[in-house]
Each structure stands twice: as structure tokens, then as C-alpha cells.
Amino acid sequence: VRNLHAAGVEVKMITGDHLNIAIETARQIGMGTNIHAGEAIRDGTHHSKELIKASDGFAQVLPKDKRECVLVLKDHYKNIVGMTGDGVNDAPALSAAQCGIAVDDATDAAKGAAAIILTSPGLGAIYDGIIESRRIFRKLKSYVVYRFAATMQIVIVLSSLIFISN
In degrees to the nearest 10, what's the CA dihedral of 150, 153, 155, 156? Predict the structure, then answer.
């Protein structure tokens, strides 16, 4: 979780477990403990949308609450949203996220709704994937800039030769 935070990824916990269990789990894994009960976001008001953005997570949620959190972050705040899950109750949120990730021992419903299925336990593969994809993006971007500059150089030289020699 610390590595994801250092990479600029905001991590939120959305769980059906009791609020006290969620807070203690978040504390143990190094997440923030600003976790609220799921009923706080069920009214769909502007306040609940701000709460979704500002909090570290929600506990005692229903499957529709998980999907609502994903949709608010994705559609209202225009964030890129990845969601991990392992159960049938996670399937709606996994399919709503831009990148649904089913964990190693997920149910068939979660695997069917997800875009990526992890084959090793833990979230380390997600961090490794983020770092590798950013490295690939940097290389592709520098290649495109190089090709554009080289093409512009050729066009300028050829245009200059045409104008100079009539």
C-alpha cells in the first residue's frame, strides 16, 4: 500500500465487513483510517460524493454501494479507477471500473466481470504492473517525439532545398 501511495495511486478500502474491523485492517496495512459506514453514501447527494472522494474507505457496504463508489470516482471526479475483488458481490463494481482486477482465489463471477485476473496472491502484482506500464509509456512517448522531430527535420531540409534551387 505504501508503494502504491508513493507511485501516486490513491487506495480506498470498500468492504462489507464491520466498520471496526475495516479500521483496524486499514491501520495494520498502512492505509488511512478515515473509513465510514456504507449507509453514509446511499443518499446520492453532493455531500456523499465528496465523502467518497475524501475518505479512505467504507465498511458495511452493499454491492450497489461498491459500484456507486466506483462510478462516482470515475464519472463525477474523472479519475481512472481500478477495483480489486474476489466475490460475487464485487462483480458489479469490477465491471464498472476501467480496470477490474480479480484476485488470485476469486469466484467465477468476479473473474468474469474483471479485466485482469491475478495469478499470485497479494497486491504486489498491481504495483509491478503500474511501474512497468509507466516505463513502457515513457519509452513510447520518447520514441514518438523522436520520430516527429526527425520527420520535421527531413521536411524542413527538403523544403529548403526546393526553395533554394527553384
Answer: 170
CA–CA separation, 118 vs 137, rounded Å? 22
Residue ranges in the chain whose pLDDT is less than 50? none
Query: In degrees, to the nearest 5, what angle opens at C-alpha 95 toward C-alphas 134 and 43?
Result: 110
**pLDDT of the residue at 122:** 82
Q: Cα dihedral sign for 10, 14, 17, 20?
A: positive
Report which DSSP code applies to 56: S
Q: Report the predicted TM-score, pTM, of the whole model to 2 decimal places.
A: 0.81
Cell numbers standing for residue 55: 475518505
What pLDDT digit, counting tens, does each position of 4-14 carry?
999 999 999 99
> Could you tell me where the beta strands, DSSP code E, fall in 11-144?
13-14, 35-37, 57-59, 82-85, 99-102, 116-117
